[in-house]
Amino acid sequence: MTTTDTPEVTREQEREAIASVPTGLFIAGEWRTTRATMPVDDPSTGEHLVEVADADPDEAAAALDAAVAAQAEWAQVPPRERSEILTRARDLMLADVDRLALIMTLEMGKPLAEAKGEVAYAAEFFRWFAEEAVRIDGGFMTAPAGGSRFLVAKQPVGPCILITPWNFPVAMGTRKIGPAIAAGCTSVIKPAAETPLSTLALADILVQAGLPAGVVNVVTTSKSDDVMRPMILDPRSRKISFTGSTPVGKHLLELAAKTVMRTSMELGGNAPFLVFDDADLDVAVEGAMAAKMRNIGQACTAANRILVQRGVAEEFARRLGERMGALPMGRGVEDGVVVGPLVNQKAVDKVDELVRDALDRGATAQLGGAPADRDGYFYPATVLTGVPAEAQMGNAEIFGPVAAITEFDTEEEAIALANDTPFGLISYVFTQGLDRGLRVSEALEAGMVGLNQGVVSNPAAPFGGIKESGVGREGGFTGIDEFLETKYIGVRMG
Known about the structure:
By secondary structure, this protein is α/β, with parallel strands linked by helices. The protein contains 14 helices and 22 strands.
């Protein structure tokens, strides 16, 4: 499919997009059927889309075998060749953006325009790591005392286990697959059970790009722990990269510790969004819309706690409510829709529980405040004011289109409220004062800070958190290092 200006998507186009995706396991360059299958549903209707392979541990074990078998040869492939494969994959993704975006929208619900943006963003990870593949370097120096030389080399860590979430199914795939390929690592990737199609479509594109058999293998399953545990505990697996919830991340870290496996963990967030009384409110509202409504609020980077200085709180809430109230809600394939469905009924129930708890504790619903009465898993855009700090949503990711506003008086109070969480993925600060902006940014306990901007994600920047929000970084100059081992060779000079 090529990009067009026509926004309308027919049911026939939907069926064609789904039918274009292979539905088996992708192992050693081949598509394989399984004894069992699992359903993939459209969250905007609750309707069944297709059945895909549902691997058991024995079927999935072949994927790790394939990755291990391919590792030695793939590590010897010249960096330029690895780079060219990634470049071709990037070009193929951009040429196929409409189909890939439609597949994503159908299986997880995000508006089609946003899905197209994600495909473009995802493709940039392939371009970035194509460029990084040819820049892997080491070092050479004379020992301080003389008599020998220090030779430092970078080598691929080995077969990797990659586990991706449902909320950004294409971008999180390329963000992990890209550096693994660039570094010379083979991998087994397991997508979320809710969104297997995007990853399967991505694997097909890698085949078209010329990726050798066994370098990337895809395992889809509804039995994640049963299937992944043996692979993680297998000493041949040398790295795990996971994006998902903190509880699951902690479980995976425990498993990884058994073999002292290298880990990258991009976990949950509880992002504070600070608006000071000297902020440009137009800029702050625009930033809040981006930080809150990206992916219908279903993002670990979503503004979870909107902290507004008391003098501008009422005006900010009014403007934000006007903007969010004007957002069209519907199926992601419909023209102009911004508020699509949440991923499943469980997600709707969680958002509703958090909203009701805040209301019971004294918050006011300026907009929305209850699930939508329609087919599919919809929750309307909601703005809550006067949310007390002790509300449940102050300690849990909302993961929905709910803006929770809490007032503060002083800079010190704002920083204390922002840091009062075990999470530390990202924070947002809006102020026109340079001194305040830098001072607050440095004081916030987060791996990333958006200063007067509501989106900071970029393939060229190191993405990741501190505290219980994760370990390691993805993207940027450090992203490929997560897939490389440093080897020191001492050379005697006689």
